[in-house]
From TrEMBL, chain A:
<keyword id="KW-0812">Transmembrane</keyword>
<dbReference type="InterPro" id="IPR003594">
    <property type="entry name" value="HATPase_dom"/>
</dbReference>
<dbReference type="InterPro" id="IPR003661">
    <property type="entry name" value="HisK_dim/P_dom"/>
</dbReference>
<keyword id="KW-0902">Two-component regulatory system</keyword>
<protein>
    <recommendedName>
        <fullName>histidine kinase</fullName>
        <ecNumber>2.7.13.3</ecNumber>
    </recommendedName>
</protein>
<keyword id="KW-0597">Phosphoprotein</keyword>
<dbReference type="InterPro" id="IPR004358">
    <property type="entry name" value="Sig_transdc_His_kin-like_C"/>
</dbReference>
<keyword id="KW-1133">Transmembrane helix</keyword>
<feature type="transmembrane region" description="Helical">
    <location>
        <begin position="298"/>
        <end position="320"/>
    </location>
</feature>
UniProtKB/TrEMBL annotation, chain B:
<dbReference type="InterPro" id="IPR011042">
    <property type="entry name" value="6-blade_b-propeller_TolB-like"/>
</dbReference>
<keyword id="KW-0031">Aminopeptidase</keyword>
<keyword id="KW-0378">Hydrolase</keyword>
<dbReference type="InterPro" id="IPR029058">
    <property type="entry name" value="AB_hydrolase_fold"/>
</dbReference>
<dbReference type="GO" id="GO:0004252">
    <property type="term" value="F:serine-type endopeptidase activity"/>
</dbReference>
<feature type="domain" description="Peptidase S9 prolyl oligopeptidase catalytic">
    <location>
        <begin position="415"/>
        <end position="626"/>
    </location>
</feature>
<dbReference type="InterPro" id="IPR001375">
    <property type="entry name" value="Peptidase_S9_cat"/>
</dbReference>
<protein>
    <submittedName>
        <fullName>Dipeptidyl aminopeptidase/acylaminoacyl peptidase</fullName>
    </submittedName>
</protein>
<dbReference type="GO" id="GO:0004177">
    <property type="term" value="F:aminopeptidase activity"/>
</dbReference>
Amino acid sequence: MGNFGLQYRKNLGLLITFLVLVTVLFVTSAFFARKMTTNFVETEFSNKKVEVFDEFIKPFNDFFTSKVPEISYYQGYIDSAQAAEFSNTVLRRYPFVSNVNFSDVVFTNRDTLGKGLRFNNLGISLRNSYIFKLDAENRFIGVHQSSEDYKNYAEDFNNMMLKLAGFLDRVSDSTKLTDNDIYKVFYTLQPGKISYLNIPRMSDIMAYKSMMRFEDLPKSDYEQDLFVFAIEPRKMAILNKYPNLYEDIVIKPIVDQYVVKNAAYLSTELALPGALSDYKLQFEASREFIQHDINRRFFPVVVGLSLIYLILLMVGYLVYRNVMINSRLYQLQYDFINNLTHEFKTPVSVIKIAGNNIKSADKLSDTERNMYGRILDQEADKLNALMNKLLSFAQIENKSIKFNGEYIELNEFCQHIFDATHIKYPDLQLNYKIDVKDEMYADPVLLTSVFQNLIDNAYKYSAPDRKVLDIRVQQNKKNFVILFKDRGIGIDKKEFNSIFKKFYRVKNQFNQQGSIGLGLAFCKEITAFMGGDIKVDSQMNVGTVFTLSFPVEVKKA
Amino acid sequence: MRFLIKAFSFLFVTTVLVGCNGNGKVEYIPVQDFFGKPDRFNFRVSPDGRHIAYLGLEDHCRNIFVLDIEEPDSSKQLTYQNNMNVQYFFWIGKDSIVFSNTQSHQDSLRLFTIDIHHEVAQPLFAPAKHELSWLNPLRSRDGALLAEMNIRDSSVFDLYRVPLDGSGPKLIELNPGNISSWYASADGKVRLALTSDSVEDQLLYREQEGDPYHKVVETDFATTILPLGPVRDDHGAVFAMSNVGRDKLAIVKLDLRTGREELVAENKYVDMNREGYSFSREEMVYTTGLLNKKETRILNKDFKKIYSKITNKFDGYNIDIIDTDSAFNTVLFKTYTDVDPGGIYYYSKKKDKIVELSVINPALNGKRLAPMEEVSFDSRDGKTIKGYLTYPLVKKDSYPVVVLIHDGPNRRDVWGFNAEVQFLANRGYAVFQVNYRGSVGYGKEFYTAGFKQWGGEIQNDISDGVAWLIHQGIADKNKIAIMGTGFGGYSALYAACFNPTLYKCAISASGYTNLFTYLKEIPPYYQPYLQLYYNIIGDPTKEYELFKATSPLFHAEKVRMPILMFHGGRDRFNSLTDVNQFVQKVKNNNVPVRYVFKEDEGRRFKKDENVIEYYQMIEQFLKEQL
């Protein structure tokens, strides 16, 4: 403990370490943020495809789950006109349906059978078949199919009826049509094709079953409707919900025999379900494209990081500045105490010497007595003035001084001071000009000490042969302006701000002693106290102008 | 302990009394009390009037019981079946009964004769997989009964004689294909036949069996001529119901040789009911017509005395004559009013006494029920539509209303006790029943006006009725529900699609969702029937636009009101896929749908627990919505 000096310590090493640490932190976090953004974008790239897919598949699902089952609503009563109407809506609403094949199917136990199949006694035959599509001009065309044309669709018909016959075989009175049965029996999905047979009522299914099993039933015909929809997945609309992620989304055949030459930087795919299963959805993005997206996402992160970095730097700077100011203040106080000690010591030692001399002298001549008396008086005055100065400054600082304001007639007031100055500094050439209309509201005692201080300074900091002071007292619209212009040594511009600070002394040959750096600080405090302002303007070795200004209209507290 | 019981019973009695007398508060009657089933039913008088046979529950099965009126002590249980219900029975002589064990249309035919003294059941013939319908009169003649059966071809019924000794049916006459029914004369000979291709009916007559038939009358599908039974001592005439050449069905005596009708009874406003003819007496004993209340005219002098005794005792009641023997020794009848489910009684001539046989719905005995009144209003095209309005007992300025649509449409609502109506009224709803056009009982013109008007004028009549009710200030126009079974359910679903502002919610039990499916129910070999349905509903191939426009399934996305739907797995007029699609479509629009599916129920729920659940759900649903 004792080893620690009590002097003020500035540790710049600490600050530098702080700076370095913060910078390192900034750089590494920026690096990781970048890495994570890249990862994030790449994950998004492979995940968001599901959303695009969902959107993409919606019309198809709508078609498959809502529109197709509508066929069953008609319970086999659909004829070519209704089929045309239905197909027209389908073809126009769902562009991926490229054509619709409608077949009027008859279930019968009669012997006459056209083209069709027979399971025991149940004959399933095709009565009529139509194909519906839109031509190049989007006109609706329906073509009745001859038996030759129909060969293309015979496979669908046969498949469907075989499945149904199998179902009829295992169905019984207690069977309930489950969703699974419906899907397996009445739908046939092949790549590019959906076949749908209208779902008969359970009692019709039982009737078919008995027709299949028994010979001697009344001859009857039941009508059913078979629709085959040709699906062209490439006509399905793709909505790129994430244009920032996916540069290109394409529908491609699932078997792609061409080797990809310039593979995309990032690519992912999704196989399409059911009737679309010969195609897949491929998502691609080039390096530049994905880079762009990464950058776009990284930008706000890096801005945030930089902001934090800047704030930390700012904190560092503020700490540094505080340290510097405190260090200067410490220095000033130290100087002040040194000065003050010196200021006090000189008169005290003079008094002490004068006292000793008087004591040791056997006889004092009148001249000597006068001299010592004058010396003692002078030095006591000095001490007194010094103490007064300190006290009044302390009072001002603590705001314990009272403002005894009154209206001052400036001509008269200045005359008093200038007369006193003549007596005090006979070698000072004092020129003044007073040009005011109104009286100024101020505390005369305080104002006197401001005048005194400025006159003292002008006298003190002028070469003996240039001790000239011009004082102008003027009044403009708002303010009383009092100028003190000397031809002294001048003040460096850099020190304009500092000279009004406590304990600050401009270093020059004129203030080696007898100055404690309080004069101007005192003036500034007092003028501010009285609602005025003090400014300085100066040129080295030419002269200095102090400008006091007080408002004409004073708000009395 | 005994004291406690006494105290409690006293408390119970006083609360019941208070509950009965209190005018301000109406007693809440639990659901099961409305829909309790009687434990004795199908009462039939023996030909000599000495016994009454009925079905009762024993061993959880319906069995035949025989009541001896003269010696009550010798009353007994006749059959002892414990795994099968007796479906129906009838007296074929003073000592013997024929009964059937056939459980459903799909079930095989099992018929037996039984002697009430020996109690031994003999099969009429070996169980067979065809259908049978008996020819009246159901009395043994020469040891045999007459019946139509489809043994040869399931779509064609031939005429058979069924000997009671079990020797098996004998074919009498082949159906040429167009005869829908035969009618026997008093001597057991068959002289009269009705042919039908459903669009056109012909009544055929011959003097003797074996002679060729000749045409008596020909009617179109809107006109009815329905033989009731032979006229005594005249094989050439029958009593019949006929609206040939008139709008309302009348009871006529039809001369089969000339085709001329002699009017027996008619009513200016309504059709005559099919009752009052007695096979044993071969005469019209009385005639009835349903006006505001039932109007009965007694034609037989002997019966008049008996009937006045009954009406004296049951003043203000509707009286249905159930059965009587030819000498009126024993007269079985049922009495009821709108607020009294009533009971079944018999009058014994010998004792000159009325005896109670069974109380219908005893749980409601002494409970205050809501009276039903007939109302009538004009539809938008000026037709007068009748209906019934039942106010809840708690009086209000305006009531929440349940519009209860009857099934059919070829049925009607009638005045009398109706458990469903009373249940709803007890829960505080006014119940409005409409006999919309197409309902039967109001004449030919009114009935045919409903043809091809499903969802059209029929629905308008219902809506106009509701509008009238609102206009009268009876209905609270924000609290109206529409409800019904079968056609009524269809109407409710239709209203849910197309009358979104008139009703607050809809309840459909087995409502038809898809008219295509509905028509599909008629098998293709019933071509004649199909034609009739095409006339009544429409032709699905030619008028498919009408079908699409009026089937709720095609308009499910328009539904915005909450729906409560019931559906039985064995309901053949709806397909499960249709109903599921409908429910799904409605749900997709975020419309609240409560859908109850009972796999082993048919169009109307039969099982007690399902019936109770059905009405509890209705109660809950209406409470939430109104």
